[in-house]
Design a protein that fits this description.
It is a single chain. The chain has 355 residues and is mainly β. It has one domain. The chain contains 5 helices and 20 strands. Strands 1, 3, 4, 7, 8, 9, 10, 14, 15, 18 and 19 form an 11-stranded antiparallel β-sheet that branches. A 7-stranded antiparallel β-sheet has the order 5-6-20-17-16-12-13. A two-stranded parallel sheet has the order 2-11. The N and C termini lie far apart (52 Å).
Length: 355
């Protein structure tokens, strides 16, 4: 038996609309020597996924059961299609990590193709930041994604590859002090592309700055909600609700679509001794919330020239307190808070700024 080396790699691109006619052909056709900026490969987090690759894939047989024989013996079911029960990627959140010019422009903060696509899949779209130099992501309708995954290992060696389109995403970011912001994206596969399963040779991967430069550490982030005070953990969740529509012309017979979006936060933070009832006041407020919650990871626009585009800022513009719980943090009072990202302005509940 010939054994095969282990590796996993994933590339992601955003589609303009659903359907195979709108597949990201750069991702679909990625082969040979590929990189992060052009082909959308994403370097996974070593503490997540299978084999420390930050990527997880599980396939299943979608079938229809047949009537049992005597004594409850099951017969082989009728095959419907290959299903994907798990497809996810986790990575360290950062800017593009490229060297900035002496007078940076907004375009210098654009993210790598695959990371930008994953954010679009979560329902965040980018624009030039009007508040300064950088790129700002705000909520919008989630984009369909094209995803290609390779399993095998060793450039030029045999491997397996799948390419799916019309994938929908949901996920979460967890920030841990003295660690990193880890974004985990779970992908619901739409359909396997025509000739979407192949047995090519494993590509030569160039993760560029994702591999050569460090992500910013969660420290000195100036977290503020009312007063400026630190958190011990912070999680931001993107829950995109979807449904499957019957469609006889779809290659799977079904077509997924987004039906709702919920962005929520869960954080544990230190109580403010100056305004001790702040959290309770927000919980019982009769009016809409008005207090900004924000923090910045990394150093924005480094100086002198030659620094890297590595920092980002998280802004929940007017989070609504849903649950609070007093807890002990060492010898101090803290609060566990569950918050909903809400806004009186459409798509105004969250800003993710790379600066």
């Amino acid at each position: 038996m010939a054994e095969v080396a282990f590796d996993l790699a994933i590339a992601i691109g955003a589609q303009s609309a659903s359907g195979e006619a709108n597949i990201d052909t750069v991702v679909r056709d990625a082969a040979g020597s590929i990189n992060a900026a052009t082909h959308g490969i994403v370097l996974g987090d070593v503490d997540a996924g299978t084999g420390g690759k930050g990527i997880e894939l599980e396939l299943e047989r979608i079938l229809a059961e047949k009537a049992t024989l005597s004594n409850f013996t099951r017969q082989a079911g009728d095959f419907i299609r290959e299903g994907v029960s798990t497809l996810s990627v986790a990575f360290r959140l950062a800017g593009n990590r490229n060297v900035l010019s002496g007078t940076p422009a907004d375009a210098e903060f654009a993210l790598d193709k695959g990371i930008d696509a994953l954010l679009q899949g979560l329902g965040l779209v980018s624009a030039d930041w009007s508040g300064g130099i950088g790129k700002i992501y705000t909520p919008a309708t989630a984009k369909y994604l094209t995803v290609k995954l390779w399993a095998g290992g060793g450039a030029g060696q045999p491997c397996l590859a799948w390419c799916w389109y019309d994938c929908l995403a949901q996920g979460s970011v967890i920030w841990t002090p003295a660690g990193f912001g880890i974004l985990t994206v779970e992908l619901a596969v739409g359909a396997l592309a025509t000739s979407g399963f192949t047995e090519p040779t494993y590509p030569m991967l160039d993760y560029e700055e994702q591999g050569s430069q460090s992500a910013p550490v969660v420290k000195g982030v100036a977290h503020a909600w009312g007063a400026t005070r630190g958190f011990t953990t912070f999680e931001l969740t993107f829950a995109n609700e979807t449904e499957e529509l019957s469609d006889s012309n779809s290659v799977t017979g079904i077509r997924p679509r987004q039906t709702a979006r919920n962005i929520d936060a869960a954080t544990t933070l230190y109580a403010d001794g100056v305004d001790l009832s702040f959290e309770r006041d927000k919980l019982i407020a009769a009016g809409a919330p008005v207090d900004l919650m924000s923090f910045t990871v990394g150093s924005p626009i480094p100086s002198p020239a030659g620094g890297r585009a590595n920092a980002y800022r998280v802004r929940l513009t007017t989070p609504e307190a849903r649950k609070i719980k007093p807890i002990q943090l060492g010898d101090k009072l803290g609060w566990e808070c569950e918050l909903a990202a809400v806004s009186g302005v459409a798509n105004g509940e969250l800003e993710l700024i790379f600066l």
